[in-house]
Amino acid sequence: MREMEPSGDSSIDILEVFEELKRPPLNLLPKERKLRESGIDNFKSGVLFRRTIFFDPKYRHLPVNDLRYALLHEEGHKKKKKYTTLVLEIDVFVILLSSFLISYSPINQKIQLAITYGLLPVYIFLLLSSLRIFGGAIQKDEYFADKYSAMILKQSFGVRRPSLIVESTLSKITSSRNKDALSYRLGVLFFGGLHPSDEERVGAIERTVDEQSDTE
Ligand SMILES: [Zn+2]
To answer: Which of 36, 112, 163, 215 would staple 205 via disulfide (CB 3.0–4.6 Å)?
Structure first.
C-alpha cells in the first residue's frame, strides 16, 4: 500500500512550468534555455541545438510535477551527457577519418565514389550498432538525468517520493505511444535497450532518492 504522491494540477501549460523553473530564486534552468515543440519524440534535449529542450505538444498539459520532472530530466542531460556524446564523437571521428583517407588516396575518382557509396551502409551500421554496443554506458546518462531531476523535485518542490512522479510520467508517455507504428518498431529494433526500462528507472529513484535523508 503506497500513498499517492499528488502529481499536481494538470490544467497548467508546460510554458508556465518552464518559466517557473527559470525564475529566481529557483534558477533551475539557465536564462538562455529555450523550449520548442517537436513531434519527433516525447521530450528531448538537442545534440545540435544545445540551448533547446524539445517537447511533443500532446504532453503540454501533464500534471505540474510530471512536467517539472520531464524538463529537469532534459536539463540533467545538458549538465552531463558524457557517454552518449563520447560514442557519437567516436563515430564521427571514424567516418571523417575514412572519408579523408579515401579523398586523398591516389586512386581515380570513379573508384573513390564507388568506395564512398559502398561504405555508406557500413557507416550506418556502425552508428546504429555502436549505440547498442555502448548501450550500458548510455543508460548511465539516463540514470544520471533521472536522479538529477528527482533530487530537485525532492529538495526544491518538497516531493517526498519522487519515484512516484517518475512512474506517473513514464507511464503516461509509454501508454500513449503507438506500438504498431513503423517508427516505433524500427526504434526498438535499432535502439531497443538504449533506455533502461521504466521499472528499472523507477526502482533506481526509489533506492537513490526516495529513501535518502528522510530524517531531515
Ligand atoms: Zn533522457
So the answer is: 163
39 & 68 share domain:
yes
Distance 104 CA to ligand 1 centre (A): 40
Q: How far is the CA of 73 from the centre of ligand 1 (A)?
A: 6
- Residue 41, domain extent: 14-79+134-210
48 and 145 fall within a common domain: yes
Ligand 1 center to 11 CA (angstroms): 25
> Separation of 195 CA from ligand 1 center, angstroms?
8
Do 43 and 121 lie in one domain? The reply is no
Q: pTM of the entire structure?
A: 0.78
- Say yes or no: 141 and 53 in one domain: yes
Pair 154, 95 in one domain: no
The residue from 92, 110, 132 where one domain ends is 132
CA of 105 to the centre of ligand 1 (A): 41
CA of 108 relative to ligand 1 center, distance in Å: 45
Residue 47: inside a domain, yes or no? yes
Please choose, from the candidates 181, 168, 179, 154, the residue with its C-alpha nearest in 3D space to the C-alpha of residue 28. 154
Task: Name the residue with cell 540533467.
Answer: 76
For residue 35, report the distance from its CA to the centre of ligand 1, in Å: 16
Would you call 74 exposed, middle or buried from its count of C-beta atoms within 10 A (0-12, 13-18, 19+)?
Answer: buried
3-state percent breakdown (helix, strand, coil) of the chain, nearest 5: 60, 5, 30
